[in-house]
Amino acid sequence: MSNNSPRVSICIPTYNRADMVVCAIRSALAQTYLDIEVVVVDNASTDNIEEVVASFEDSRLRFVKNKENLGLFGNFNRCIEVAQGEFLHILHSDDYIDPNFTETCVAFFDEHPNVVLTFSSSITHIQDRAIEGHYAEKDLIFPAPEGFQRLLHERCFITCPSVMTRKELYQQIGKYSLEFPYSSDYYQWLRISRVLDIAYIKDTRVHYRQGEHSESHRLLFTNPSGYLDTLKIFVQIIRDLGDDYPVYTSDLNCALRRYIGDCFYAGFTRGDGMKGIHPLLFTGLALTAWGLIRPKSLSEILGKVGFLAIINCSLVCFSISFLRRIIKKLFNERKLSY
User: Fold this and answer.
1) Could you give the angle at which helices 146-153 and 249-269 cross, rounded to 10 degrees?
2) What is the CATH number of domain 8-210?
3) pLDDT digit string (tens) for 148-198?
């Protein structure tokens, strides 16, 4: 890394979002921390992204265009390759950050040299609503493997575009896996937090825009790819743990039980809206996850038997359309909330 390199690289991966990327670029260039570069990494778009980027007159802004589409996380990896900074922030092209975001994160890294990854608070924008998201009321450091265990015990609490890392991290852990084209970020957080310290920063925010335009909506509402990927990630984590698997059995059991519940919810509230997919697919996913649960006590054995009974009941409910409609109403679905 050259002495002339900026300390922070804010990379904005994008694909056919020329109409949305302006806000992300403006927020990156408006940072109170000045030692930055902003790199728009285009994934072979067919829109006028070059013109949009060229409209900004700022020497800190660079444009990189891939010759072919590398996929979502292939483009994240391209960001890692072209970034010149000591720290890397991958900001999604439909999101934006508070002006103090970079300054706050860099100061935290400088104060805590053991931390390799930070994530922040968020404001989720859904149509005309703005929902504040704070993981805790203060900054927190998760010494390894505490972050790993929490990510399994709790629903993934890391908002992807809020993540900043030391770039050297990728030499130790590796880039984003392309084995999980829809949920590789979750796998990356698990890999990192198992062996290295991560941290939450409360007093800065990413503005996270949800809606039908987003990858999250596509992967969770219009097809089951995100759910399939998550199950594959649990299988891979078990393989990665090897002889250490018994140490984390309870954590993985908790994640698998929650995943089974997510499958029921998705099957009843979203399954009918997935083109070419029958909601019964989610029973299959739930049954596969059930098979991975390793009970460690009599109560857990009984709990696993109970889950199997629920899965068998879901076979009937998923097969009959009017039952699906009734249960969907009982779930009180929120269509735009992930």
Assistant:
1) 30
2) 3.90.550.10
3) 999 999 989 999 999 999 999 999 999 999 999 999 999 999 999 999 999
**Whole-Å CA distances, 181 to 42, 164, 230, 233, 279:** 18, 21, 10, 11, 22
**Helices first, then strands: H and E counts in the chain:** 13, 10
Q: What residue segments make up the domains of the chain, in order of their start?
A: 8-210, 222-331
Residues 4, 156: Cα–Cα separation, whole Å: 37
Q: What is the pLDDT of residues 64-109, one digit of tens each?
A: 999 999 999 999 999 999 999 999 999 999 999 999 999 999 999 9
At 235, list the tokens: 């299988």
Residues 6+ apart with CB under 8 A from 255: 152, 153, 234
Q: pTM here?
A: 0.92
The three-point CA angle 232-148-94 to 5° equals 70
Q: Which amino acid is at 6?
A: P
* Tokens 């990854």 belong to residue: 117
